[in-house]
Amino acid sequence: MMKLDTTHAFLKEDVKSYQEVVNKYHEQLMKRTGKGNDFVGWVEWPHTYDKEEFDRMKKVAQKIREKCDVCIVCGIGGSYLGARAAIEMINGLYADKKPEIIFMGNTFSSTYIAQVLNYIKDKEVCVNVISKSGTTTETALAFRLLKQFMEDKYGKDGARERIVATTDKARGTLKAIADKEGYETFVIPDDIGGRFSVITPVGLFPIAVAGIDIDAIMTGLQKAYEDMADPDLAKNDAYAYAVCRRILENQGKNVEMLVSYESQMTMVAEWWKQLFGESEGKEEKGNLPTSANFSTDLHSLGQFIQEGKKVLYETLLLVEKPTLDITFPSDPDNADGMNYLAGKSVDWVNKMAAKGTLEAHEVTGNVPNLIITMPDMSAESFGYMCYFFFRACAMTCYMLDINPFNQPGVEVYKKNMFRLLGKN
Ligand code: PA5
Q: Which residues are catalytic (predicted)?
């Protein structure tokens, strides 16, 4: 379902020459003997997921869909980005679907929080609070405000019926609150870290609330699992992509820019940045993951890509079939001079922009381009894409001798912030 094209990447090494290295790390990943092996539950998850909980998620999501105008999803990082990426990619940005999904708990911005609380005050509201640790400050701060809002609006019993908590099965403050208040809960598996958790209730429950077929996401995951069973670099494009990243780094390219031509993929890029940035950026190693949405950003970052310092390579995430398309109309006056496009589809224009840009960046700009093609922006493709990037991420990190599944660096800001906030 996803295909890698390396013919525009100026690779100076043969991808296949890494086959032995890839075989070694593939075995470590599958046998749970590599670095961070207590967090590789996602590898077999396409088959091992809890089917009973999966069905319960669908039922609870349906109830929420019937009851609410708005569902607030409260979480940050891995407990936020995947669900938002999926909902925007699959439904599009102006789907006009009920319930509206609004994200909170991902910022300390007082204006943002106050505006959301104001926006929902006269609406029918449900809340899904998500935190694996159950102690993340952004999420806890927003959830206290939301809990009070819900209890003021619906009373304790009404709030209980409208709040769902996704957290650890036993530990953490959120679990304790959920037990005390009697909230419906879903479990975040111990052996799946935040940025790999979109395929668990962390992502799947809000995605189901947004009306998306989560069975199709699991089908995509399972297909990807099958396609990646063989580490052969001639067949396994996720691993080939992982190798290409290392080859390009060897060529002095330390910045990877994930590029899409679909506006609804912007949050996919944010999710991808967390996946690669938090997994790979340690021990002073790793490529900086950045992103751009074209052609929008060709009118901002395009100049740098074309003529600026040659630090980056692009990874084009190209979608073959748009969710919707429009035929461009003819105009008898042709005052805007646009009749040369009459009868063409807008997606065709987008594809020509992509072709022209690739040529400009590759040939004139000397910027390597990896191209990953995906068929569409369906739920199944989303599941497949997640698994594709998970495998690529694990492999590319192992190739740097890094544990992909921890994030020791994010604790430093928290320590300083807690000191300044006066937390014991
Ligand atoms: O990838 C990660 O582990 C992090 O981004 C976490 O998901 C994020 O910090 C939120 O953590 P928690 O779910 O414990 O609130």
A: 278 (proton donor), 414
For residue 73, count other CB atoms closer than 10 A to its CB.
29
Could you tell me the CATH number of the domain that includes residue 124? Answer: 3.40.50.10490
Of 360, 370, 352, whose CA–CA distance to 7 is shortest? 370
- 406, part of any domain: no
Indicate if the pLDDT at residue 410 is higher than 90. Answer: no
Domain shared by 143 and 163, yes or no: yes
Q: Report yes or no on 314 lying in a domain.
A: yes
In a domain, 258, yes or no: yes
Question: How close is the Cα of 412 to the center of ligand 1, in Å?
Answer: 14
Statement to judge: residues 236 and 156 lie in one domain: no
Domain check: are 278 and 345 in the same one? yes
Residue 264 and residue 164 share a domain = no
pLDDT tens digits for range 320-376: 999 999 999 999 999 999 999 999 999 999 999 999 999 999 999 999 999 999 999
User: Alpha-carbon distance 323 to 375, whole Å?
Assistant: 10
Number of domains in the chain: 2
Side chain identity at residue 280, one-letter code: E
Question: Which ligand 1 atom sits nearest the alpha carbon of residue 202?
Answer: 13
Q: How far apart are CA 93 and CA 265, in angstroms?
A: 10
Q: How far is the CA of 80 from the centre of ligand 1 (A)?
A: 9
173 in ligand 1 pocket by Cβ < 6 Å?
Answer: no
162 ligand 1 Cβ < 6 A:
no
Q: Return the active site residues.
A: 278, 414
- Taking the complete model, does pTM exceed 0.90, yes or no? yes
- The alpha carbon of 289 and the centre of ligand 1 are apart by a number of angstroms equal to 18
283 CA → ligand 1 middle, Å: 20
pLDDT (0 to 100) of residue 96: 82
Q: Which residue CA neighbors atom 5 of ligand 1 most closely? A: 77
The closest residue, in CA terms, to atom 2 on ligand 1 is: 194
Minimum-distance ligand 1 atom for the alpha carbon of 410: 9
Range of the domain at 352: 3-34+219-398
CB of 82 within 6 A of ligand 1: the answer is no
Last residue within a domain, chosen from 212, 243, 277 = 212
